[in-house]
Amino acid sequence: MTKQSPIDRVWNVVDKVGVCMMTTRFSDGLRAQPLEARADRNENVIWFLSDRRASKEDEIKAYPTICLTFIDPKEKVYLSISGSASVSRDTERAKGLWNSEQQAWWPAGPTDPNVVVISFRPERAEIWDGPASSAVAGYEFAKARATGQKPNLGEKRKSTVRMD
Question: 3, 53 in Cβ contact below 8 A?
Answer without folding.
Answer: no
